[in-house]
Predict the structure.
Amino acid sequence: MSLLTILEFPDPRLRKKAALVQTVDDALRETLDNMIETMYEAEGIGLAATQVDVHKRMLVIDVSEERNNPQIFINPEITVLDPEPLGHEEGCLSVPGFYELVSRPCKVKINALDRDGEAFEQEAEGILAVCIQHEVDHLDGKLFVDYISTLKRQRIKSKLEKEHRQHKTAASA
Ligand code: QAP
Ligand code: CO
């Protein structure tokens, strides 16, 4: 297994729309395993393929306390079961160090394929519902910062751009 590089906002590649997965094969499973390893190493609860510059509709999530329940969703489709807004403080491995309150439907159903390419259906509430909606947004080129004010988003963008410049300078010094 190997760690993948996580793209950071405002990288334009985070805005690409991911394509449907046509076949679930060993190569795809290897990428998914690398995504799970990358998510654990970065101490995240969710990671979408878009974030590692793979523009296929798949994502990994582990919202368990013990960090031993990785879930894979290939070609996920969300149906809202209860539109009642649930407000949750969100962060993102692609927006490191920033957290903002975002409201989303509180209960959803997900239809997806598992690592064997078998279709399954799952209902989600609470943090899992938030996380799945956040990750599926990535596959459509959307980030949680798109839900906050332009001013806040601009501030986050400037701070991360400054960090990225400093890292580049440090690397070449
Ligand atoms: C999406 O986000 C999410 O800034 C997954 O320094 C987040 O795993 C869904 C992370 C919150 C629901 C609620 C962020 C790690 C992880 C950071 C993540 C950081 C280190 C974010
Ligand atoms: Co994210």
